[in-house]
Fold this protein.
Amino acid sequence: MKFFILTILSTFLTVKAFASTLVSHKAYYKLLLEKTETSSMLEGGEGNSTFSFQKSCEGWALKENFLLSYNLSNKKSSNTYSIFKTFEDFSSTNFSFEHHDKSEINGIINYQGYLKKKGDSLSGKLIENSITDLNYKDKILLPTEHLIKLLKYAKNNEKILYSNVFFGSSKSSLVKKVSAVIGKKKKIKTEFGINSKFKFIWPINLAFFNYNSKKASPETQIKIDIDQGGIVYNYEVNYGDYKMYANLVKLDNLSEKKC
């Protein structure tokens, strides 16, 4: 029993230590869309996004904005504006999410929801025009919980992490199977360092699979360069028939809210 208690305590302190390295920040990205398949309706496009991640008294608040302009094969263009917000408490037992999307192709998407996690059980509500019960019985991580575990693996030189993660960013696929392949730590030159022009980052390849599907090929693949504070310096999203490239152009430090 003593060994069990010490193991639990050690695990809690380790997770807390890795959580404390996360940095409250707001990142600004320049986006570029590039066609990869000749059959794609998309010819290209560009846009901007912001990503804010801030520590509050009870947990981590995330807000991501996207503004994209698509160039279509019929020589027309289409615009999309999206806002996605989440809150996850420090214990990763309570989670809320909110998605607003306005697209000239897909119309308007508005939904929100919340989850409570207890062991391997997750339950909550998805709220749109109606209210849908959410219930899962599996080992499922929440997004910040997954990020902390991913950085812990990177720091310990572990190369592969498989996880089920509830993101909430896609109504039709709230949970994703995520395969992460972690590359060797490397030093990059950056203009965003506070004390140095150089940062150590890990290149990580992420593959996202439908939680309920047995398909061997991922729906989406993302390559990121991330540092120990959780700051992503650039990323590449492969949607299959096109790719989106994101480069960090501005980085603000956000003050943590006083409690």
Observations:
- The helical segments are 2-19, 143-155.
- The two ends are 36 Å apart (CA to CA).
- Residues 1-18 have pLDDT under 50 and may be disordered.
